[in-house]
Design a protein that fits this description.
The protein has 7 helices and 11 strands. By secondary structure, it is of the alpha/beta class. The chain has a single domain, classed as 3-Layer(aba) Sandwich (Rossmann fold). Strands 3, 4, 5, 6, 7, 8, 9, 10 and 11 form a 9-stranded mixed beta sheet that branches. Strand 8 and strand 9 form a beta hairpin. The longest helix has 13 residues.
Length: about 240
């Protein structure tokens, strides 16, 4: 496909095509994929999969898992499917072209064990909307709002299934409220800092469908050292072993 770049991951063992000028995955996706630790034969759903980077990483690390990626933008669906094929992961990953608001359990046969998502961070009324349509839909709630995403997760998760996402720290209360509205109880959170001297702008959150109340706050995650190289924890996320 024209207008794409080809990047590599895990020392060249995964190849990833992305739009040269459109939406491209960020370090958020790497952190989020690293948080996914499924059991053998778990079924995992990525809401808003983009180029498919999270399913690619998880399928590489956990070859027994079955993964589904849902994406509403047709051009990104085509890229994600090409990435799945290029990495020989057709038996592990299925990319679905659909609006997650229409997603029900029967779409993927049975409930899933885990839902993961790197959702749009911004309300429509918040900030400048990017003129590039791929980036705009990925960053602003143009096609799906937070409530829609959590409702979809609640519909397809099994009881005691897990929801994992990265979100803006200043919208953490919104996230918790919508999780509870979808019967997903917040169970774990971890603040993400760009450096050890910066405020947290992002937060990693896990929840459990129909879980009991009780929230654990993990140690902060710092992305960069002062020289702008990755911290040891971040470097391990890029390790293929």
């Amino acid at each position: 496909m024209d207008g794409l770049t080809t990047d590599t991951f895990f020392e060249g063992r995964i190849t990833v095509q992305q739009a040269r000028a459109g939406y491209r995955y960020s370090i958020d996706a790497v952190i989020l994929a690293n948080q996914v630790c499924p059991r053998p034969a778990d079924r995992i759903l990525d809401l808003g999969t983009g180029c498919g980077i999270i399913p690619l990483i998880v399928a590489f690390r956990y070859p027994g898992a079955k993964l589904y990626g849902v994406e509403i933008q047709r051009d990104l669906v085509e890229i994600a499917r090409a990435n799945v094929s290029a990495n020989g992961l057709e038996n592990s990953i299925e990319i679905l072209h659909m609006d997650m608001k229409m997603l029900v359990q029967s779409t993927i046969s049975d409930p899933v064990d885990l839902v993961v998502s790197n959702p749009p961070f911004h309300r429509i009324s918040s900030g400048r909307i990017n003129p590039d349509s791929q980036r705009a839909v990925a960053r602003h709630e143009l096609r799906v709002a937070l409530a829609d995403l959590l409702a979809a997760a609640g519909r397809v998760l099994r009881t005691a299934g897990k929801f994992i996402c990265i979100y803006r720290s200043d919208r953490l209360v919104d996230l918790f409220l919508q999780m509870r509205a979808s019967r997903i109880e917040p169970k774990y959170t971890r603040l993400i800092h760009s450096s050890d001297s910066s405020d947290a702008r992002l937060v990693l959150v896990e929840g459990m469908k129909r879980g009991n109340a009780g929230l654990t706050v993990g140690a902060p995650l710092t992305i960069y050292r002062r020289d702008r190289t990755y911290t040891d924890e971040m470097e391990r996320m890029f390790d293929p072993e």
